Every structure is written in C-alpha cells, then in structure tokens.
Amino acid sequence: MTLLSWMNPAEAVVSSSSRSVSTGIGDTADPITTEIIRQGLNAAAEHMKRTVIRTAFSPIIYEALDFAVALYDADMSMLAQAPTLPSFMGTLGFCVEAAVTAVGGSQALGPGDVVLYNDPFGTGTHPQDAAMVVPIFACDTLVGYAVIKAHWLDIGGKDPYCTDTVDVFQEGTIFPGVKLYEGDQVVDSIYRMVLANSRIPDAVIGDINAMVAGARSGGAALTRIVERYGLEEFRHCVARIYDHGEAMVRHWFEQLPDGEYSAHSVIDGDGVVGTPIPFEVTVRVHGSSVTVDYTKAPDQTVGPINSPLPSTVAVSRLAVAYLVGNEAPNEGHFRALEVLTRPGSIFHPVRPAPSFMYGVPSDHAIELIINALAAALPELVPAASGGDICALVWWGTREGTGEPWADGAPHPVGLGASPQGDGASTMMFHSESATRFTPAEIWEARNPWIIEQCALAQDSGGVGMFRGGLGLNLSFRVIEDCYITVAIARTKLRPWGLEGGGEGRPNDLVIEYPDGRTESHSLSTRVTLPKGTLVHLRTGSGGGHGDPAEREISSVRSDLTEEYISLEHAYTHYPHAL
Amino acid sequence: MTVVIGVDVGGTFTDLVMRDQADGQVIVGKVPTTPQDPEVGVLNAVDAVLTPEHLSRSSHFLHGTTVGLNALIERRGATVGLITTAGFRDVLEIGRGDRPDPYDLRPRPKDPLVPRRRRVEVTERTRADGQVVTPLDLSDVASIVESFATESVDAIAVVLINSYTNPHHELLLEAELRRCGYEGDISLSHRVSGEYREYERTTTTVIDAFVRHRMGPYLRRLRDGLAERGFVGELLITRSGGGALTVEEALQRPFETILSGPVAGAAATARLAQAMSLPLAIPADVGGTSFDTAAIVDGRLPLNFEGDVEGLPLQCPWVDVRSIGAGGGSLAHVDEGGLLRVGPRSAGAIPGPACYQRGGVQATVTDAALALGMLASGALSGGVGLDLAAAHRVLDDLVESSGLPDRVSVAQGIMRIAASHMAEAVRGITVEKGVDLRAGALVAFGGAGPLFASLLALEMDVDTVVIPSNAGNFSAVGLMQSDVSRSAARTLLRPLSPHIMQEVVDVATDLGLSFGPATDADSYELLLDLRYRGQEHSLTIALPWALGEQTPPIELIESKFEAEYHASYGLNLPESVELVNVRVQRHTRLNVSREAVSAPRWNGATGLVERPVWSFTQAEWLLTPVIERTDLPKEGMVGPVLIVEQTATTVVDFGFGVRPGEQESLVVTRDRGART
Prior knowledge:
The structure holds 2 protein chains of 2 kinds. Chain A is α+β, with helices and mostly antiparallel strands. Chain A has helices at 31-55, 59-62, 86-89, 92-102, 120-123, 188-196, 201-229, 231-253, 309-324, 359-372, 440-446, 553-561, 567-573, and strands at residues 14-16, 67-73, 78-81, 114-117, 129-138, 141-151, 176-182, 185-186, 259-267, 277-286, 289-293, 337-341, 391-397, 404-409, 449-456, 472-478, 482-487, 508-512, 518-521, 523-529, 534-538.
C-alpha cells in the first residue's frame, strides 16, 4: 500500500508500515559486498550528521541535535540513517515522498536541486521542522535522496513557539515542497520568502547552509558507492541489506510473547481547552510481527496536541526498538511493524488541525507502549519517567544592541526505576535521548540570563525497592525584559511506579515576578518576563520499582549520606532502614 | 650522552627502542605489559635489552604512559573534594543529559568521580562578562577544610562559574584554603582549562585532581628505578596533544597525558610525512584490538581540543587520532540476519586468535590472514607458533551460517570487511577535513598494518602505501623523536576586528609566559579558535608567532579561516568572524637525531622461497615469493610478494609494486594498468 493514503482522510482504519517488501533479488547478492556497502551507507549518513553539527548556527541543532539525517534509494526506501533525534528518525521517509510528489515526481528533479518541505502533515511535526530533500545522481541515473530535517528557531508562526494554536496556519509559513536550489543555484524568490518569514533570519540562513552542506556530503558518498559497484550490483546488495534488516528485527520480535497488550493514560490538556484527555494504546504481537494500534484514540483536539501520522509511526518504531533491540536501521527494519490509526484522531490528525505540540501525545505514547508491554516483559520495563522533554523557548530584543535573540532547549528529567536498579537522574526523555543539555556558561554568554541554580531535586525520586531518578531544579533570572513560551506536558499526571513502587513528581514551572507574584505554567505561549523575574523549572522524576520496604538498607543509607533523600523522607518511606 | 630510549606501553606489550646516535646501533625489545604496576614492565624491558652502560650514556628517556587513563578506567585515584559556585554543586553529576547509548531505556550512569557529599558550595558569582555580581564569601572555607579532612580528601578541585573570564574568586579561594591549613593538591579550573562550558571544565579539573594521585607516585618510582640503573638523562612523558612533557610538568598537569596512547604513531607518521614531503599522510596503525588513524596534512599533527575519556569530557588538546575496534584479534561472526560481520569485539591477548592455540575458538582477522597464506609462519607477535589447522577449523564453522561457499570465501570476506571498516574510518576523517583521500599516502604500521597494505589501498582507492622501517615498533620509534611541548588556552569571546588584536597578543603572551622563560630552542605557535558569528563550533587556525610579538595581520587570519572553512564545509558564509579561544603552544626541540631508525636484520625468512598466497586483485591463489625486508632489491619488485621482518609482514598483492623508499621505508604502489 502507499504511504500517501494518509493525505486523504477516510473513515476507514489506515495502516502504515514499511514501503518495501522483500523482492528476492537480494538473494543473489554477494554477502561480503553487501556488508561492505551497508557499512559505507551507514558511514555516509553519519558523515551527513557530523557536517550538520559542525556547521549549524542554532544550539537547538548542534547541541540539542534536534534534527535527523538519512539516505534513501530511488524508490524512497531508507538506505541508512545516522542516530540523531530519535523521534525524528522514523519520519524522514514521509518527508521524501511528500516533497518529491509535490514538485512533480522524480522526473522533475535534476542534479544540484534542493527541495524544501515543512508541511506538518508530511513531516509529522510542526512547520519549524524543515526538511531538505536532495536528489542524488550516479551513472547518469537518479539513485536516491539525501534528506535532513532540522528544527529552525522560527519560521513565522504566530509566536516563535506556540502551545495555543487552533489551526496549522497559525503555526508557521508552509513550504509545501518547493525548490530552494535548482541545479546548484539558489532560487532567490524562495530564499527571500524563507528569510522574510523568520523573526531571526540570520540563524535560519546559517542552518539552511548547514543542512545543504550535510545533504550534499551524503549525496557525494552515495554517488561514490554506486559508481564503485555499478547500479546493478548496488541494487542487489541494497535488496539484501533490507532483507537482512527485516530478519534482524523479526529475530528480536520473535522473542516477544504473542498476545494483545493495552495501556491507558491521561494527557493534561490540549493547551486551549483545559480538560484532561484520556487515551489508550494497544500492542499486538503475533509471531515475528508487531502491530501498534491507535484506533481507539480520541478525536483530534482544538489545541495543538495532535501527532501527525509520520510522528505516530516514528515513535511506535522507537518504543519497540527501545525494548527489543536496535542497530543502525534501514527500510527492512520497518517491515515487521504495523501501525493502525484513525484519521481525525490525535494520532492521525487531518488538515487543518494544529500540531505544534505534537510531542505531547507522541512522547506520551512512547512510555505507554513500553508500559503496555510490562506484562509481557516485566524484567525489561521501567517505571515512568518525567515523561516529557520540558521545552522552554525564550526570545526578546537585547538592551544594548537592539538585536533580536531567541533560544530554546529541552531539559532533562528523572528516569523510572527498573528491576535492574535505580532510575537515572536528569536524563533527556527517550524521544530526545541523544540530546545534550546546554551548559550555563554557554547560555550566559549568549542570553541575558543568570542561572541561579542547577541542581538535583532531593526527595523527588519515586520510592521503591529501586528508587526513581531525580528531577532537575533549574532557576533562570532574566536580566533583561523578554518572553517565554512554556511547553511542558505531564504536569498533572504523576510518573507511575511499578510493582509497588511509588510515584515520582510531575513536571512544573513557576514564574516568580519581581513584585513577588508567582504563577505555575505548563502550556503557555508568550509570557512576558520583566527584567529581574526568576523562572523555576522543576522537571519530573522517575517512578519507583518494587516495595520500598524491600529497599536495601545500605542503599537508603547511601541516599541519605549523599543527600539524595532527606532524613524526614527516609523516616516516612524507609523506616526499616533507620 | 648519545643514546636515546623510547618506551611505549600498549595494552598487551611494552615496546622499547634504543638508538645510539654515535654509531647508529639500534636495539628493540618487547615484553608483556604489567597493568597493575606499569613501571615494572617498563623496567623489565630496560633490563631485558639494555646494559647499565647504555643507560649511563642516555640523554633522554621518552615514555608514553597509560597510568592516567587506567586510573580513570579503574576509578582508582585521589579522594577529591569539589568546591563550586552556590547552586552548581551537581554540575558534575547532571552532566549533559545524554546517554552513552541513545537506545538504552534503563541507562545506569557510573558514579560521579566526586560523590555528592564531597561537593560543596561557596557563595559567589561572576557574570559571563567577568563582572562580579556576588562577592566571594570566605566564611565557610574553614569548615569546608574541616569536613574534607574528615572525608580524607587528598585533592581539592575548585570550579566557579565563569571563572574562565575572571579567575579572581578561584585564586582567593586557593589562598584561603591554604590559610586554613589545607596542604594537599589544589586544582583550579581556570588553570587547568581556561575554557568555558562548566560541565566540561569541571570534569577536566576533577580528572586532573583525581589522576595526579596515581601519576605522581608512578613517575617517581619510574624515575627512581631508572636512576638506580644508572640513567642520568631527562625523563620525558608523552602528551595527548603531541610532543612530550618534562616529568616535573607531567606531575603538575597529569591530565595532559591521559589521551596520549595513540599519539606516538601519529607523531611518527607526521615526521615521516615531513621527511618524505607527503602532502597527505594517513597512518594505518593496526594492532591486536584497534585500528588507529588520522589525517596528517603537510606533516602537521591534527589537534582537537575537546576529548572524551571513559565517557567524561576533557578540555585538553589531543591529537585527533580516531580509533575503531578492528585489528588482528577482531572476531568474526554471522549475525541474526545472516550477514558475516567483523568486530568490534576482539579476542584480545587472551585467548587471542584461534591459531595462537591459547584457547581461542572464534575466527579472527589473524586466522583469516593465516588461512590465506598472508602470514609467513611465525612472523607475528614475536615468534608465536601459528596453527593453520586451528584457523581452518574456526573458519569452517562460519561457512554454513554465512551462506558462503567455502573456507577461503569466509577468510577473504573477513579481511575485506575488516579493511572496509578501516576505510570508512579513514574516509570519515578525510571528508571532514576536506582533503582528497585519493591524493594521499597510507602509512601502514603496527603488528598487522603492513598485512593490510594492498587491501587498504584497494578499499580506500589510494595508490601509495608507505611501510616505515621498524613497522611493528613504529610508535616506540616515534617517541624518540618528540619535541618537548606545552600548551595553554583561554576563552576570549570577541568579534574578530583590529581592535582586539592587542588583547589577543596580551593574552597569548601571558599564556606563553606561563611556561617559563623562552630559550633559543623554543618556537611558539599561536592558535585561534574562530567561527562565524552565531555558530558554536569553531575551527582552529594555526599562526606563526614569537612570544610577545604582534599577531600576523588580521586579513591573513581571516583569509586563513575562510580557506580552512571552505576546505572543511565546501562553502563560506557572509557572517562576520568571531574569536572564541586563544591557544599558545611552545615546542622545544631536543638534540636528538631525526634520521630514520634502521631495523635490524631478522633472518626469519630463511628457507622460505615461494608460497601460495590469496590474491584479492586476482581472486585466486598465486605462488608468491617471500623475501626478507633487507633483501629487497633497489630497483624494487612487482607483486605478488610477501616481505617479512621481525615485527611485521607486508603483503604486496598482484597489481602492486614495491621499492625501497626514503627514510628506509618500503613504498608500495598500485599499478592501475595491471591486469586486475
């Protein structure tokens, strides 16, 4: 079936998985050349990634790694992908297909072209995440595509970061698959439109250049590989690479017990209408095939917490990979996993639904899929984490120079405890697990802030035989007037424990104004922060695992010595140890 | 005083090379490494091959050590106490929030080097522009000293926020710690690193404090042990950033030695590249477990300034040598998807390859090479007997599961896959540096490097492979030719403009003077980390400079940056250029010969005339002459030929030629016209 069916909302249930099935032509490929080409493709994707990191302008790209890169073959099947933002990684195939279709198909593409695409229904995320798709030629033939999707700090939404949009048109300027370069020449009219629609065009120019440089480097590498082996042998080996990927994943899936596993949870609210939104995910395992079923999901919401299909598919792949195993993936890895969605629901919204905060449901789904499988894999499944990337986005105009500035970052949370031990403290949530937390000294050199505290939150970890990881207490004092958008989910739902373990603390953000007023925020757009305001981010912690009464006495004492817990907390929850 | 000694401590073997510059005599030795007390292995190597007379005539003893690295791996070091700015006690533990494996659902980070109870805060605050917003409150220092004493702290690390821009509070704190009676080591972050990013500066400062405790006693024991044996020359320790430190400096800045392991080979390659005028030299150092490589352009060592050791960042210059798990001991297996894979796991020294007959039961690269006739029997690892039947058995085990027709297909598959891993590592570096690999020369050394000479040339599409003399001990040879080097850095965030150049000179001079007064043997180098305004990552531009002098004109600096940026990324940007860090290096040239070190004749080929060796270019067995390296005729030979020496075997396939080159090297060249 074609992936493009998601463009036509229908009443029927839609399934989506890999666009490739085994053709058998890989059977004739030499296994050694196959392995050498496989390594070469993975190295090419890795090099694209490094080029982007080293040339990007925005910390959100070079520090937070808020981007993904991959190479596709001429049939738009994924050849290789470098480990980058986990929740982006499964979305790129949708971007390639949509972008190529939009410009009139592959025959409309020539060497040196670059297609810009940022329609959320094709990228899976929000308009700020722009994809560059570059056709690759070798032996005078189109042999594939390099694609990079990266987060631009601003592309003209109603605000630089929005939690309160009610349709896609408020979220940013859409470039629905347009040529930014044609035959190595920049298309000036498009380029100027991009810049005219950004509050911080300089950063966007820099990041565009980084993306183009990265995609071109991947293209050069693919051309070299195809030219070395010739098209025929290359195609056969690639077919075998996909078959191999499929075999690896089926091998892992076979170790899951057959059955149907469901889990429920509740989303705090949609950013516009405040009511809680319950939802459910079901995972079915049959032999070496896995289906993730979202068809019981609630209708798409008024506010922007809708996860377009590409992201729903991506996080489903990610959650299962977290549990059963992974390696550098290709299209074959996706064949054994099927995703069922219902058009018009929060996991398959249709135009013009807003999706700026797509991560709220999709990140939540990652932990819910994992939790659903707790019954099947009790040894592998941890308790809940803080469960969110806790994004804050800031902007303003510098006092001295009048220059506009903007910055944004995710923040780490505590992870859940597992049967193997305590949860890790202050780690980026699973969907951004490769992302790095920005050092205070970099922030202070760029932004009008003084960081007053960056500390582990004592007593925050869920109690249990194994304790949840601690959350983060981070306090920013702004020393010039500015704005903030707070994009924090899971502020009401406490991170759950497992097997008798206690709950962790939920995420929270408190603004302490110079006049002494304080306010709590979760999804709030463009909050004015007068000079001198203190912003306290308190990220969630991990849930505990097992009965706290069974926690080793030495572990409790060590937690006390290191002040991870207070004496009062120990008396309340671990009296056996005192 | 004409003798120079180099000793390189590897994971498996400790290698010694001695050269007498008076008569050209060379002695090499190899003894097992003694990981618990590495100086024992070093002294064993000395005792095994040198006489007291050699030692008494030695001017320099150059030594690469892994003691600092091992201290971190084993987590055995000082009991460190850490003092931070109020609010930042947990920086060391919070880190950057990323996981070593992004797909690890249940990461279990290692305990921080300093546990939370020994991390204390002082009230103070300096802004990013150097302005003090909260003065340092010294009233708690006495009680900190007392509590650290209770905890048996023997080294204190001090890391205050933004101290890179204004170190005043760190200096005040040091004075107060002394005033309160603390007598142990103190590491101040601005002295150790001087660069911004508090997590990275904190780990670097803590590592400095932590490893000093192990390095100090080690270096003193080694110094004493050598003195007892009659050595009166200078003991020098290899730096991560190239060159060597005097033992006194190594005691002061032990963290600068931690990443020095693979440096000697790269440094030796750089010197060879200078002597042979190779514009691009690619070291291919293949040992038992790893393949180490780099891109050496115009004979310059490539430097990086943010390293990583045991998952901890280290702000310290290090030679950009990339290491992957591919070597003679790399294990082959067939994965769950049915493809033959090689590495990254290695059979190591124990059990080693199956053909070593030490209990190895899984096929390795060495087993494959042996089965393909590429190893003259006994020509590996100093004469270990190699068992061909054992190699055949483990290769046969892979035939069915890999879907390959026979043992030879498996063996040549293992070699090609290993070579392709190495080629990808090299390609990654050269593409990153913007240099064309095909115009480069491989320099193959280490126990298994020369074995891969032709195969790597094919896989990387290069035409020239240089096999240096003493190929198996090339790293230890390289040690003997080090400069004594120092470096220091400071973050100075400024737009690059004529107005800041005096400030740059002042900072650079200040850094240069921190190494002590200049002598005639010294040369200085000014390095500027530059980027386009708005970027984070920078490029380091090296400039000629003399201590206290003006910098080269700003136009030259800018054009050099633009050129290097274009070479790396294929474009330039319209943005203005910003300075990030000022770095100064001082190199002191030792009075040591830079001549190539001749390898002693081995005579291991006696009795071998011809043998069948698998040809990768012809895909068939070819009857191949085997000759002793010293017997290679001046006019060279046409492949296939196997060239043996004491520490390595060089495989020259059909389609390649080999001739003696400069610096007593072998030069293997690809003949593109040959029938392949």
